[in-house]
Amino acid sequence: MCDDDASGLRAAFPRPVAGVAFDPVSLVPVDEVVVTTLVDNTFDALLASDDRVRRAPIGAGLVEAPQFEDGLTTVGLRAEHGFSALVQVRRGDAVTTLLFDTGVSPDGMVSNAERLGIDLGDVQGVVLSHGHFDHAGGLAGLAGRRGVRGLPMTVHPLVWTRRRLAPPGLDPSPLPTLSRRALESEGFEVIERRSPSLLVDGSVLITGEIDRTTDFERGMPRAHQAWDGAGWRHDPLVLDDQALVVQVRDRGLVVLTGCGHAGVVNIARHALRLTGVDRLHALIGGLHLSGTAFEPVIAPTVSALTDMAPDLVASGHCSGWRAQQALATALPEAWVPSSSGTSFRLAA
């Protein structure tokens, strides 16, 4: 093993973080948060709604189809390997709308929003969980459908990192890299934050970098590489990975992840420690437990989440069917299947 390999592995190992946060974040509680999944890997029009979850209608729109007598057919929502969520935060009568990630294709997110009757013109800020293309591809569609001049977009400074996949025995495949210059020319106001930041009058927390404290969440396999200016190196940590956190009054924290590259247990524990809140109310988003490299992490992840006893777990995107099955078994009252067009309502 060369020195570079060893240093990368050491970086992925846990580091001790004990006690309360040195600089705790005072997160203002909200009365309600509604998280609507605009893009996810699946769309199931037959999933049932309940008092916490509202599903998209089976006929979310009409499109031209000449083989039918009236020339139209009913369509559902787009499902693609990506993630995007609309976050509506309410305090009293004041509602603020944020967009968390934008899916993989330029038109997938905006198409689903249109079919759901959601006006993306109401979005007051964008947050990117990290720089991977399956979370940022819809920025082009957003800019094309609404004026984004001055629209703030919160990112980690490493979101611009060049990355590639280099599986053994195969030619490396470059991953699309975000361009700050292009985004600013579209009108986005890019805000880089490595440390935690507060939005919406202190009621929405963007975690910034996550403390890696578990002994089983080791990050991406060796095929995931980043350009460091001199060469390609294993990039296990995806340090730009960050989560969105809201505290629902009298309920606890709602944690929204994109892929959870930092490890979902690391993320949840980091949010609890950072805010001083002792309860995880809901966990929504991608957990990155799919594939042979991550399936060994499923059991300890599910065990740790079971100990936290969240009221709602909606794992989607890159979580994988094995993890979904394990979570559904371990947390039958909390786990609900995710799907494009689903709204999760968490209220005080």
- How many runs of DSSP E, i.e. beta strands? 20
Named at the architecture level, the CATH assignment is 4-Layer Sandwich
* Terminal residue distance: 53 Å
Q: Helix fraction?
A: 10-25%
User: What is the arithmetic mean of pLDDT?
Assistant: 93
State the name of the first-level CATH class.
Answer: Alpha Beta
User: Which strands sit side by side, in order, in the main sheet?
Assistant: 2-20-1-5-6-7-8-11
- Beta-strand portion reads 25-35%
> Low-confidence segments, ≥5 residues, pLDDT <50?
1-14
Number of helices: 8
- The CATH topology annotation reads as Metallo-beta-lactamase, Chain A
Q: Can you identify the CATH superfamily?
A: Ribonuclease Z/Hydroxyacylglutathione hydrolase-like
Total tally of structural domains: 1
Derived structural class: alpha+beta
Largest sheet entry? 8 strands, mixed
List the helices and strands in order.
HEEEEEEHEHHEEEHEEEEEEEHEHEHE
Global geometry: globular
Radius of gyration: 20 Å
Describe the fold and architecture.
This protein is α+β, with helices and mostly antiparallel strands and 348 residues long. It has one domain (29-57, 78-347): Metallo-beta-lactamase, Chain A. 20% of the residues lie in helices and 26% in strands. It has eight helices and 20 strands. The chain has helices spanning 3-12, 108-115, 133-136, 139-145, 180-186, 264-275, 298-308, 321-330; strands spanning 32-39, 53-54, 61-64, 72-75, 84-91, 94-100, 125-127, 151-155, 163-165, 173-174, 188-192, 197-199, 204-206, 224-227, 232-234, 244-248, 252-257, 280-286, 312-316, 343-347. The protein has an eight-stranded mixed sheet. A hairpin with a 4-residue loop joins strand 12 (197-199) and strand 13. Helix 7 (298-308) runs parallel beside helix 8 (321-330). It is globular and about 60 Å long. The relative contact order is 0.18. Residues 1-14 have low confidence and may be disordered. This is Beta-lactamase domain protein. Residues 96-183 form the Metallo-beta-lactamase domain. GO terms for molecular function: transferase activity.
